[in-house]
Amino acid sequence: MSASAIFILDLKGKVLICRNYMGNMDMNEIDHFMPILMKREEEAEATPLVTHGSSHFLWIKHSNLYLVAMTKKNANASLVYTFLYKIVQVFKEYFKELEEESIRDNFVTVYELMDEVMDFGFPQTTDSKILQEYITQQGHKLEIGAPRPPATVTNAVSWRSEGIKYRKNEVFMDVIESVNLLVNANGSVLRSEIVGTVKLKVVLSGMPELRLGLNDKVLFEITGREKSKTVELEDVKFHQCVRLSRFENDRTISFIPPDGESELMSYRLNTTMKPLIWIESVIEKFSHSRVEIKVKARSQFKSRSTANNVSILVPVPSDADSPKFKTSTGTAKWVPEKNVVLWNIKSFPGGKEYTMRAHFGLPSVDSDDLEAKRPITVDFEIPYFTVSGIQVRYLKIIEKSGYQALPWVRYITQSGDYQLRTT
């Protein structure tokens, strides 16, 4: 069981809109929510669940709104919070921004959506693409006879409509890996992880079934191919279209995809790796009046790959002025509002090393540098490359009409939170 009622409140706790799904609670109970929450916040004891008597309030805050689910039952809290975040996403896709003004301007649509996303306390259709097929923002004309909802609402495949037709059938798959890295001043890697996502753009007719094969370590062990290069995926999360029972049984990723763009899966790898772009920096001060910063950047991946749009942000003292730069490649500029030098390198092939020198005047260097040492941060993107070594071994497309479809796969590695501390 999920929620008896859902409320949307403004920052003062005034009810903007509410929906009583089960009729088993006094709706005036919501008046107790805000005073209890304010008292908890004053005592620094705010919690995501507030109780008054036998009423439980599970709440989230978004922009200038509180979304509150009210229940008396021992509800599945994780389901309730997932539902609250999901309806925030639905409202944002309808109204671009979800805030008090967009709720007030769209009362009719909000009520219609709240009627559809939950039924008698149970979550129903929460896919905005499907909802938009029969709940529009243009209002409704009176029709003779009850309007029929799309088949998707009563269909087992609620994320895809029937009867989709395209002249050319294609699937575009992007495997994107973000590298989060923290290196300390003596060059030791303190934290390194890879966060991967597999994104789809599906342009396929009918109701196709797709099967995706990866070089997954567990799968290769099951099938006795342990010597092949494999990747051990952790913390795997799938779109609802993936048949989880099949994945758990034999690691097959089998699904009927949503139409258009979607995120098929995400994964994480905690692995110690060599930094893809290594930075060394030396700061020298001269005669209490100027400072010279030497930065060396080295790409530590194979020469057949190239990092694009590399941005290296090097912190400088807050009182620095009169900058002069010299680079072996790319361009450097001072960004005084952030107290950094921004070194941009459009194309950085593997196995290369480049240098940048920056001279600054320092009007008041007598006080030893008391500023906290900020790390150097790096942004980059390497196409046709995955740092984990994940590979799409096959992408099969099966549709009863038997049409031929082209799958296209791209690999991209990019920087996430990529920081190198300096001495």
From TrEMBL:
Note the Gene3D superfamilies from the entry.
Answer: 3.30.450.60, Mu homology domain, subdomain B (2.60.40.1170)
Q: Is Transport found in the keyword set?
A: yes
Q: Do you know which InterPro entries this protein is assigned to?
A: Adaptor_comp_med_subunit, AP2_Mu_C_sf, AP_mu_sigma_su, Clathrin_mu, Clathrin_mu_CS, Longin-like_dom_sf, MHD
Membrane topology value = Peripheral membrane protein
Location of the protein in the cell: Cytoplasmic vesicle, Clathrin-coated vesicle membrane
- Give the GO terms filed under biological process for this record: intracellular protein transport; vesicle-mediated transport
Got a GO cellular component term for this one?
clathrin-coated vesicle membrane
Cite the Pfam families for this sequence. Adap_comp_sub, Clat_adaptor_s
Give residue ranges for domain MHD: 168-421
Top-rank lineage group of the source organism: Eukaryota
Q: What is its main location?
A: membrane
Alphabetical keyword list: Cytoplasmic vesicle, Membrane, Protein transport, Transport
To which protein family does this belong? Belongs to the adaptor complexes medium subunit family.
> What exactly does this protein do?
Subunit of clathrin-associated adaptor protein complex 1 that plays a role in protein sorting in the trans-Golgi network (TGN) and endosomes. The AP complexes mediate the recruitment of clathrin to membranes and the recognition of sorting signals within the cytosolic tails of transmembrane cargo molecules.
Under PANTHER family, the record lists: AP COMPLEX SUBUNIT MU (PTHR10529)
User: What is the name listed in the Swiss-Prot or TrEMBL entry for this protein?
Assistant: MHD domain-containing protein
